[in-house]
TrEMBL record:
Alphabetical list of Gene3D superfamilies matching this protein: Spore Coat Polysaccharide Biosynthesis Protein SpsA, Chain A
Protein name as catalogued: Glycosyltransferase, catalytic subunit of cellulose synthase and poly-beta-1,6-N-acetylglucosamine synthase
Keywords: Cell membrane, Glycosyltransferase, Membrane, Transferase, Transmembrane, Transmembrane helix
Predominant subcellular localization, coarse grouping: membrane
Highest taxon of the lineage: Bacteria
Length: 340
């Protein structure tokens, strides 16, 4: 059985060659792996790097507003194999993964998509990489959604129409809900799927990622939160209550302090909302994330503070919805880096 593998990327010259090399080193022997690299408008050497590999089909797009969904749809539509493996260009697939994923899909006809464990190649390079390594994977078994690295049956892609081509964030979970709506299962396997380099070294990158995450939560929840098991409603409520609550209490305290200085005390319930994970969940992280106390405190601090950029992402979605101005990508601002 042949497999189509679709890699997407923009300005990814630092990782695309490794990504392709790992695919070519796959142990899969039951058919051919057809590799499609879909470039979203790179201005570096990504396209020439991908074209240097024999047998790799390069699809060069130049959209005004590139999105992951646009790239993935062009990729899977270019092929014809019954199973499609999607990869981000900064992912290094494990040699045994294709075999394992194919087995999982062939053994159970109710499974429409399968994912494995993604792990950070350099979690020690920054606290942000380390956090990403903690959060990539869910519990083994049926799950609600997949990320950018997943194997999907082609008939499902044809039936659903594939990925949303407008979303700049949340396109993978959004497709996941349409797949689940058609009574297919999504399976999380407890096996290594791919290494990944988040390459997040600066606070600005952390803020941008949080902002887009919040935007994605809002965009997907407004479509599916009330129709598919309340998907992401809890996450959206958490962001709104804690991030929005902190900002609301703070602004109210500052505004009303002109009436009486005691209104500045409104800042404190806002702080409690914001730092709830740090104040009350650290021990839970020790027990359930298998972290020592210091690591659990760092992670709890992240869980406390990340709702601020996420809240502004939600706010950006609402504003864009009202004014018909959705968040857009620009190829010149997108770049895949490396930690080392």
């Amino acid at each position: 059985m042949d497999i189509d593998c679709v890699i997407i990327g923009i300005n990814t010259e630092k990782t695309i060659e490794q990504c392709i090399e790992h695919l070519l080193a796959s142990h899969y022997s039951r058919g051919k792996i057809h590799i499609y690299y879909v470039d979203g408008g790179s201005t570096d050497n990504s396209i020439s790097s991908a074209r240097s590999f024999d047998g790799v089909t390069v699809i060069a797009l130049d959209p005004q507003f590139p999105t992951p969904g646009l790239g993935r749809n062009h990729g899977w539509k270019a092929g014809g194999s019954p199973l499609v493996q999607f990869l981000d260009s900064d992912a290094m697939v494990e040699p045994q993964w294709i075999d394992i994923a194919v087995d999982a899909l062939l053994e159970n006809n109710s499974i429409g998509a399968v994912r494995g464990n993604r792990y950070e190649l350099h979690p020690e390079a920054s606290v942000f990489n380390w956090i990403g390594n903690l959060e990539w994977n869910g519990k083994p078994g049926p799950c609600d959604a997949f990320g950018g690295d997943v194997m999907i049956r082609r008939p499902i892609l044809e039936d659903t129409g594939g990925y949303d081509e407008i979303l700049v964030a949340g396109e993978d979970p959004e497709l996941s809900q349409r797949i689940r709506q058609k009574d297919w299962q999504i399976l999380q396997l407890d096996v290594p799927m791919c290494g990944h380099d988040l390459a997040m070294m600066r606070l600005g990158q952390y803020w941008k990622r949080g902002h887009r995450t919040g935007y994605g939560y809002a965009a997907v929840t407004t479509r599916w939160g009330l129709s598919v098991s309340g998907f992401w409603i809890h996450e959206l409520f958490r962001i709104s209550a804690r991030g929005g609550g902190f900002i609301g209490f703070t602004l109210a305290g500052l505004g009303l302090s002109t009436v009486h200085p005691l209104f500045l005390l409104l800042f404190f319930p806002g702080l409690v909302l914001l730092f709830y994970p740090f104040l009350f969940r650290t021990q839970w992280f020790v027990e359930h994330k298998k972290l020592n106390r210091d690591m659990a405190m760092i992670y709890a601090l992240h869980c406390s503070l990340v709702v601020i950029p996420q809240f502004f992402g939600v706010k950006r979605f609402v504003w864009g919805k009202l004014l018909n101005r959705p968040l857009r990508n620009k190829a010149a601002t997108l770049k895949t880096g490396i930690s080392k």
